[in-house]
Design goal:
With 324 residues, this protein is mainly alpha-helical. Helix content is 66%, strand content 2%. The protein is flat. The longest helix is centred in the middle third of the chain and has 33 residues. A two-stranded antiparallel sheet has the order 1-2.
Length: 324
């Protein structure tokens, strides 16, 4: 090729080659910046109410527990409060009545909670069985005691326990049996009977609802494997409602620590076996009645911390069982 031909047809560099056709361009959409306004509008009312009804009382109780009430020797001047962060807590752990109330509630929970949950689980399994008849009636009758207010239930049982009007002792009188409902060794279990009667149906409903969520295929497979009704309940149903049992156990532990209505109603007819410091909350209420609010706050903080620790340990132990 001559120089003239090269000049007329120069080599086209690769960068100058026409690009491949592209598809239609998508319209450019500007990025929207995230706004916290909408989430705050929805969460704001809840946060305000939660802080006002839960966090604020806890903080106020804790701060109040750091002060002590000082009174003059003659009592002619108004009491004053002085900052002493450990005095009320030392006083509480050195108070034999308050320590005894903690031990009493701990014994109550160790015995009453397993008995109540065992009855609730047994009732739920019986109502859930295929051979059960009248399930609606038994569900309602088991849940009915929970629908009665706690104070009303305690008043009814106080009539049942009364030494003068107890129909139970009247029926047993021909046999020469007199049940000592208000003796020092039995009054705690008289209270436990009222709590068990009131709350077994509530826990039963929770466990029964969990039983309804078990897949029918699982129960059918157990039946095809030749498992009996008892074996199916023990090896299939109970493990599958374990989370519901744990939930009811935690609720019951917290409820045991809050024991107040039943012993307070029974106190006037107990003959002194139910004292004003029978439970930790009753002890704190007695401190409030005496005008010692910081000491009552310290007792409340101690009870709250103990319940929180016990609940945390219980959750840890049950979670280890789930991982295993």
């Amino acid at each position: 090729m001559t120089d003239q031909a090269v000049a007329e047809h120069p080599a086209t560099p690769s960068a100058a080659r026409p690009a491949a056709p592209r598809g239609p361009r998508k319209p450019h959409r500007p990025r929207r910046s995230f706004s916290w306004r909408a989430p705050l509008l929805f969460l704001g009312p809840f946060v305000v109410l939660f802080a006002a009804m839960n966090i604020a009382p806890i903080v106020y109780a804790f701060v109040s527990s750091l002060f002590t009430v000082k009174r003059s020797g003659l009592g002619l001047t108004a009491p004053t409060q002085e900052f002493d962060p450990f005095a009320n807590y030392v006083h509480a752990f050195g108070d034999p009545d308050f320590v005894a109330s903690l031990g009493r509630v701990a014994l109550f929970g160790v015995v009453q909670v397993p008995v109540m949950l065992g009855l609730a689980l047994a009732l739920a399994l019986l109502i859930d069985s295929k051979s059960a008849r009248g399930k609606g009636f038994f569900r309602l009758s088991s849940f009915l005691p929970y629908a009665i207010p706690g104070v009303s239930a305690a008043l009814v049982w106080s009539f049942m326990y009364s030494t003068t009007s107890s129909p139970i002792n009247h029926l047993l009188e021909p046999l020469g049996i007199q049940l000592p409902f208000f003796d020092d060794g039995t009054v705690l279990w008289s209270v436990a009977n009222i709590v068990t009667w009131s709350w077994t149906g509530y826990n039963m409903i929770i466990i029964y609802a969990a039983l309804q969520s078990i897949p029918a295929e699982v129960l059918e497979a157990a039946k095809l494997d030749g498992a009996s009704a008892f074996r199916t309940a023990w090896s299939v149903k109970i493990p599958m409602v374990r989370s519901a049992i744990v939930l009811t156990a935690v609720f019951s532990i917290i409820g045991s620590a809050q024991l107040y209505n039943e012993p307070t109603v029974l106190q006037p007819i107990s003959g002194g076996s139910v004292s004003s410091t029978f439970t930790p909350i009753m002890s704190a209420q007695a401190a409030v009645g005496a005008g010692n609010y910081p000491y009552a706050a310290a007792q409340s903080v101690i009870l709250a911390v103990l319940v929180g620790v016990i609940s945390f340990v219980f959750f840890r132990l049950t979670s280890k069982g789930d991982k295993a």
